[in-house]
Every structure is written in C-alpha cells, then in structure tokens.
C-alpha cells in the first residue's frame, strides 16, 4: 500500500497545474491549490495524514 500511496503522491508532485512543489510540503501545496480553485486530487491530504504530516509522505519529490 505504501508504494501505491507514494506513486499517487508523485503524480501530484509532477502535475504542474498545481504550481511549483519545491520548498513546500505536499499538504501546503495541496491547500494552496484548493485556495486557488485548482481542484487538486482529494486523496492527497488523506494519504499524507495517514502516514503522518512529518513523514516523507509529506515531502515533495524534489
């Protein structure tokens, strides 16, 4: 399951529609995308929170 979760999060990292991901956590990037009305994938915060916001699952790919 961890590998599938990481693959989903990597896809989010690589999707330029949601803005740059360098220097920002995945959760922060997702929240920014929501605020901008960009409709990011709903599963991203669920996956991050499942693994812990201080885990590698909240770090960007880069």
From TrEMBL:
GO terms classed as biological process: DNA synthesis involved in DNA repair; DNA-templated DNA replication
Q: Name one GO cellular component term.
A: delta DNA polymerase complex
InterPro entries noted in UniProt: DNA_pol_delta_4 (IPR007218)
What's a single GO MF annotation on this record? DNA-directed DNA polymerase activity
Q: Which Pfam families match?
A: DNA_pol_delta_4 (PF04081)
**PANTHER family reported in the protein's UniProt record:** DNA POLYMERASE DELTA SUBUNIT 4
The name of this protein is: DNA polymerase delta subunit 4
């Amino acid at each position: 399951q961890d590998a599938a979760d990481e693959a989903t999060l990597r896809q989010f990292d690589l999707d330029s529609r949601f803005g740059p991901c360098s220097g920002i956590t995945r959760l922060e990037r997702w929240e920014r995308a929501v605020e901008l009305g960009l409709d990011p994938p709903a599963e991203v915060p669920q996956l991050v929170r499942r693994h812990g916001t201080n885990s590698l699952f909240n770090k960007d790919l880069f």
